[in-house]
Amino acid sequence: MISLTVSQSLRRGMVRTVKAPEVRRKDILAVAADLFMRQGYEATSVDQIMRAAAIAKGTFYYHFSSKKLSKNYVNRLRSVCVKLIQVMDSAEVGQSS
């Protein structure tokens, strides 16, 4: 495995994007949610989340102690989506009457 310093990686065209911690965390969660929904929780690895979010493993573990914390977020997101779909279905029924 080749390890590059920040200056070496910048010279090779790998741009390091600095974001506020809360922004980075939300980005990681959004990527994880997308992968969990498309592939399933068990089929999604932390490495896949890292690659899709374009972050280092240390960055993931800085924000989350495990993949399980990401899953908790996805479960909350799923609950909100179900409620939204129910509201939309109710609105459609009301319009067709």
List descriptors:
mainly alpha, Arc Repressor Mutant, subunit A, 97 residues
Topology of this protein?
Layout: H1 6-11, H2 21-39, H3 46-53, H4 57-63, H5 67-96
Helix pairs in contact: 2-3, 2-5
Total number of strands: 0
What best-fitting shape do the alpha-carbon axes yield?
elongated
Distance between the termini: 64 Å
CATH architecture: Orthogonal Bundle
CATH topology: Arc Repressor Mutant, subunit A
Proportion in helices: over 70%
Radius of gyration based on Cα positions: 18 Å
Number of helices: 5
**CATH level 1 name:** Mainly Alpha
Biggest sheet features: none
- What is the domain tally? 1
H/E element sequence: HHHHH
CATH homology group:
Homeodomain-like
Q: What are the low-pLDDT stretches, counting only 5+ consecutive residues below 50?
A: none
In round numbers, the mean pLDDT is: 78
> What proportion strand?
under 5%
> Which structural class should the secondary elements be placed in?
mainly alpha
Can you tell me about this structure?
With 97 residues, the protein is an all-alpha fold. Helix content is 72%, strand content 0%. The mean pLDDT is 78. It has a single domain (6-96), classed as Arc Repressor Mutant, subunit A (Orthogonal Bundle). The protein is elongated. The protein has helices at residues 6-11, 21-39, 46-53, 57-63, 67-96.
